[in-house]
Design a protein that fits this description.
Structural class: mainly alpha
Mean pLDDT: 79
Distance between the termini: 27 Å
Largest sheet: none
Length: 81
């Protein structure tokens, strides 16, 4: 995961451009890392937990505006419930 993050950051630096989609992808790394840390903490205090990764980009990505927070209105989101 960190190698992929490094490649992404190098690409952003090289292109000197950060699109909304790339920004969303960059933010997802922090979200993944925080869920991993939180699951580890829960396990440490005796609460059985594990990180579950879910790739929203695989869900109708043409119909979802991630930066605009429109995911909750899509069929993809409703299928998660």
């Amino acid at each position: 995961m960190l190698d992929e993050l490094e490649q992404l950051l190098k690409g952003i630096a090289m292109m000197k451009e950060l699109t909304p989609r790339t920004s969303d992808y960059l933010v997802s790394f922090g979200e993944c890392m925080s869920t991993r840390i939180f699951a580890a903490y829960l396990n440490k205090i005796g609460v059985k937990a594990r990180q579950v990764l879910f790739d929203f980009l695989d869900l109708h990505s043409d119909a979802v505006n991630f930066s605009g927070y429109e995911l909750m209105n899509t069929a993809a989101y409703k299928n998660l419930l």
